[in-house]
Design a protein that fits this description.
The structure holds two protein chains of two kinds.
Chain A (H helix, E strand, L loop, with lengths): L1 E10 L2 E10 L2 E6 L6 H9 L5 E6 L2 E5 L4 E2 L8 E3 L11 H12 L3 H10 L15 H14 L5 E4 L7 H17 L3 E6 L2 H7 L2 E6 L2 E7 H6 L12 E12 L4 E6 L2 E6 L8 E7 L3 E4 L10 E12 L4 E8 L2 E8 H7 L6 E6 L3 E2 L1
Chain B lengths: L3 H34 L5 H13 L2 H12 L21 H27 L2 H8 L4 H12 L1 H16 L3 H6 L10 H10 L3 H26 L7
Helix pairs in contact in B: 1-4, 1-7, 2-4, 4-7, 5-6, 7-10, 9-10
The chains are: A alpha+beta, B mainly alpha.
GO molecular function (chain A): ABC-type transporter activity; ATP binding; ATP hydrolysis activity; molybdate ion transmembrane transporter activity
Protein name (chain A): Molybdenum import ATP-binding protein
Keywords (chain A): ATP-binding, Cell inner membrane, Cell membrane, Membrane, Molybdenum, Nucleotide-binding, Translocase, Transport
Chain lengths: ~350, ~220
């Protein structure tokens, strides 16, 4: 069960040379700068734009040029959330949703589930022009879900929202990605959204898909641009072990290690994903003495690489997970870090994603 | 105040305008849609032809129609099913003339409205499994209401006020082709200024009220400006 595609196209200076594989029950993030062809690729998947190539969903061809096969958009079972929402301005919120259910024959149960999932109950009677940007996007997502798609495509759904609306809508998206059993392709240029929502990453540059792989791997590969971004970070998985009420700290289990982080809500035993920025991890060869840093973890150096001028990146293994650390060129000269060396990683802060 | 002949002319005028406007909407809307969305060589030629009545003297248009629709005209065969005999000096001839004469007034606002809607909402509808015709009737038409109302009103008003084309192809047959503008002309010719005043005044008020209503209603209709 997956969406697979291969497209190529060249028009003037614009080149598209893309390969995509999006497994089900996963969010595949198409990541790259604005204008690198991510949206074009998504539109090709939806059949809204035409490039040479092939594309199939769960084994059914949507496009197969050699067989002269091209299924028009309205006959593809897909949901597409556009960056600009594209609500039907002449209809109310409820009528926008009904537009989808009438054609997909979605029933009352699906309606209720989706309306509840996206918190649309209070908005149903409003008309499209009265909604805020974040509300519009929630309606657009609900509408595409009510089309009963077999794949969900999201084209930078948060890009045109302000920070507050983004923060408000992200939890809805996270619930969505956790509950949906279909392939999702999510286009974005925001590393934040990538880390919070993605499972699989496809990097795109100048119309070409470069590398693809699981999020954790792709984030920490020193040969890829993700690790060299200013906000480079690693994502690690941990479990809630307990908390210290008096000190407002949660205790997380990371293999045999413990992490103490500012108190978080999840129940004991619940798995959590943590984002650790490379710039928040410093390294020391000797166990630090008295320090304000709460989390000092024994680690092994896997790889080092030059970063931006004066900076050095170190890929570390902690238990069986990967962490990145950004240190100065000078520190690297002092410490002479080599693959295989044992160090202590001092983690200044982590964020729950 | 208004005599039987003038009343007949008024009824005939509005009958002509109503029939022409209906035909114009049926023909003009698909034509406007096609012009708004199709990309082909020679599109400018089609647009220029549609727009011709805007600049062409009505007498010129009327003259060619008279020749084409006459008993032995090159288009007379088209009219065989209607009984033949040519359409010059008949009400049907007036309808055809009006439709051609008012076409740009309906097509242009409608085409502008369709262009303004653009492809975006239609693409969104396609992803919600709406087939092309479905998209046209559920998205394009409702969102283009302003353009359609404006087009229909202009087409109607323009037909009510037409003179040159009517005179050329319809002549001046009371109850058959004598419309208000011709009746006014006749009154003035006959120095019946009082009756000319009544009809002219009525047309002026009617036209103003019609346009006023359109602008007032259009402000409340969907369809971005």
């Amino acid at each position: 069960m997956s969406l697979e595609a291969r497209f190529w196209h060249s028009r003037g200076r614009f080149v598209l040379d893309a390969q995509l594989q999006a497994p089900t029950r996963a969010v595949t993030v198409l990541f790259g700068h604005s204008g690198c062809g991510k949206s074009t690729l998504l539109h090709c998947l939806a059949g809204l734009e035409r490039a040479a190539g092939r594309c199939r969903l769960n084994g059914t061809w949507w496009q197969h040029d050699e067989r002269k096969l091209f299924v028009p958009t309205h006959k593809r079972r897909l949901g597409l959330v556009f960056q600009d929402a594209r609500l039907f301005e002449h209809l109310s919120v409820a009528a926008n949703l009904r537009y989808a259910t009438r054609r997909s024959r979605a029933g009352a149960a699906e309606w209720n589930t989706v309306v509840e999932l996206l918190g649309l109950g209070p908005l149903l009677r409003q008309t499209a022009p009265t909604l805020s940007g974040g509300e519009r996007q929630r309606v657009a997502i609900a509408r595409s879900l009510l089309a009963r798609p077999e794949v969900l495509l999201l084209d930078e759904p948060l890009a045109s929202l302000d920070a507050a609306s983004k923060a408000a809508i992200l939890p809805y998206l996270e619930r969505l990605t956790a509950e949906l059993a279909m392939p999702m392709v999510y286009v974005t240029h925001s590393a934040d959204e990538l880390v919070r929502l993605g499972n699989q990453v496809i990097l795109m540059e100048a119309g070409r898909t470069l590398e693809a792989g699981p999020l954790e791997t792709m984030l920490s590969r020193l040969d890829l641009p993700l690790a060299h971004r200013e906000d480079a970070s690693a994502v690690i998985a941990a479990q809630v072990q307990g908390w210290d009420e008096a000190l407002h700290l949660s205790i997380l289990r990371l293999g045999a290690l413990q992490l103490r982080v500012p108190q978080i809500r999840p129940r004991v035993g619940q798995p959590v994903r943590l984002r650790v920025r490379a710039r928040d991890v410093s390294l020391t060869l000797d166990p630090p003495g008295r320090t304000s840093i709460l989390n000092v973890l024994p680690a092994q150096v896997l790889e080092t690489a030059a970063d931006s001028p004066g900076q050095h990146l170190v890929r570390l293994r902690i238990e069986d997970q990967i962490l990145l650390s950004r240190i100065s060129e000078l520190s690297q000269r002092h410490l002479c870090l080599q693959p295989g060396m044992a160090v202590f990683a001092q983690v200044k802060s982590v964020a729950l994603v | 105040m208004i005599d039987q002949a003038d009343f007949t002319a008024a009824v005939l005028t509005f009958e002509l305008a109503a029939i022409s406007t209906t035909i114009l909407l049926l023909l003009g809307t698909p034509l406007a849609w096609w012009l708004a969305h199709a990309r082909f060589r020679g599109k400018a030629v089609v647009e220029a032809i549609v727009g011709l009545p805007l600049v062409l003297p009505p007498t010129v248009l009327g003259f060619y129609l008279l020749v084409a629709l006459g008993r032995n005209g090159p288009l007379a065969w088209l009219l065989e099913p209607l009984g033949g005999g040519g359409l010059a000096f008949t009400f049907q001839g007036l309808v055809i003339g009006s439709v051609i004469y008012s076409l740009p007034f309906v097509v242009q606002p409608t085409q502008d409205a369709f262009t303004l809607i653009g492809r975006r909402p239609l693409q969104a509808a396609a992803t919600l499994r709406a087939a092309p015709l479905d998209r046209f009737f559920t998205i394009a038409i409702p969102q283009a209401t302003r353009g359609l109302v404006t087009g229909a009103t202009l087409g109607f008003a323009h037909t009510v006020g037409e003179f040159g084309v009517v005179l050329m192809i319809g002549g001046n047959i009371p109850g058959e082709t004598q419309v208000l503008s011709i009746a006014i002309y006749n009154h003035v010719e006959a120095l019946e200024y009082g009756r000319a005043h009544v009809l002219s005044g009525a047309l002026l008020v009617f036209s103003f009220v019609l346009l006023f209503l359109v602008y007032a209603i259009n402000r409340r209709l969907p369809g971005r400006l």
